# Entry
Amino acid sequence: MAEDQRESAWPDLPPELLGLILCRLPSLADRVRAAGVCRPWRSFLNLPWLAFGDGTLFDLANDSAPHPHYRVQGLPGDAFCCSAGDNMFFLLHPDGSCSLMNALSGATTPLPELAANLRVFKADQPELRTTRQLARKLDQGDELRDRIRKVVVLPSSSASDHPIVAVLVRNHGCELFVSTCRPAGEINSLLVAWTNAYDVVDIAPFQGKIYVLSRSQGLTALEVSSRHLRTPRPPMPIFVPKSRSGVQVIQDSPQQDQQDREDFGPDFVVSERYLVESSGKLLMVRQWVERDDWTTCDFEVWEADLTEGRWKEFDGGLDGRALFLSKPCSKSLPAGHGVREDCIYFLNKLNVWKEPEAPLGDSGVYSITDEDFTPLLSESTPLLPWENWRFPAWFFPLKV
# Structure
C-alpha cells in the first residue's frame, strides 16, 4: 500500500508545471541549482549569463530585475577569472599559479605544470631585461592576465581519459599551451606547445581536436588525442621547445584583406573572426564594423569544408540554433526559452565601453534571416556596478 502512495519524483513533473515553478524562482542561479534536483529543468536554461573578470555573473534573462547579479561562491577575491566555456572558469592567481574551477559546483583543479610553462613564457618576454625585473614579474599574474586571449576545455572522450585545457597567450606572437586536467594531487602533462603563430585570432575544440584560426583565415588542426605521457612531467618550470605542430587543413589567404577592401570599400572592415562549432559543423564568423564609430554593421558565416580544404559561405539559417560570440568564449545553443532562432548574440568592446548609453559596448543581437540588429539588454537594465578591466564573456550553466 505504501508503494502505491509514493510521491512522484521531481523529474516526473510535466513541463508546463516546471515552467510555472521556474518563473517563481528569484534568479537564474537558483534555477541552475534546481537542476541538481530536477534534470528536465535544464531545458529551460538556454539563455546564458555574462561573466566578468572579477567573477561577477549577470543574469541576462532577468536583466530588468533589481539585482540581476550573482557572485560565484568560493572564488578567491584576488584571482583573475576567464570564462572557459560551459560552467568553467580559468583562474590566474597573483602568485602566477593557475587552476580550473567549476563555477557552480566549486570543484577546482590546480594546473601546476601549465602555470610553470606560462611563467617561462613571461620570462621569455624581451621587455624584461634584468634579473631584478624577472624576479619581480615571475611571481605575479598581473602581467600575464593582459596577454591571455582565450581558454578552452575539451571534455574527456572516455572514462580513462582526462579533460584537456588549452590557453592561447599573445605577446609579440602567439603561444598555445595544451595540458591535461587531472584531479588535484595527480600530475598533469603538457601535451602541445604551438608557437610562432603571429596572426592567430581564435581557437575552438571540434571533434576531439583543437582548431586554430589565423587572421588570414588559415585553419590548423592540433591532434590532442594522446592524453597520457609515458613519463609525466614533474611540477616544475620545464620549457617546451618552441615548435609549430599540427596539420593545416585550410591554407592562409594573405590577400583576403585587400580583396575585402576592393569588394566593400574603405569605410568597412572585418574587425573580428570567430571560430565556433554548431550542429556538427565548424564555422568561421566574420564581424564587420564601420570605421567611423567602430560599431558592428554586419556578420558573415562560413563553414569549414575539411574534405576540400576551403571555406564555404554558409547560406540560410543556423538549423534552429543561435550563436553566442565573444572573444574569450563562443558557443552554439538551440533556440527556444529566450534564445532566438538564426540569431547571433555578440559581445564587442568599444574603445571606451563603459559608457552610460552603452553599458556593454557594441553588443547586441543580429538576425541572420532579417538582417537587422536589436539591443542585447532591456531599457530597464540597472546600472552595471562592477569595475573591472576585462570585457565580459558568455557563461553557459550546463551542469551542477
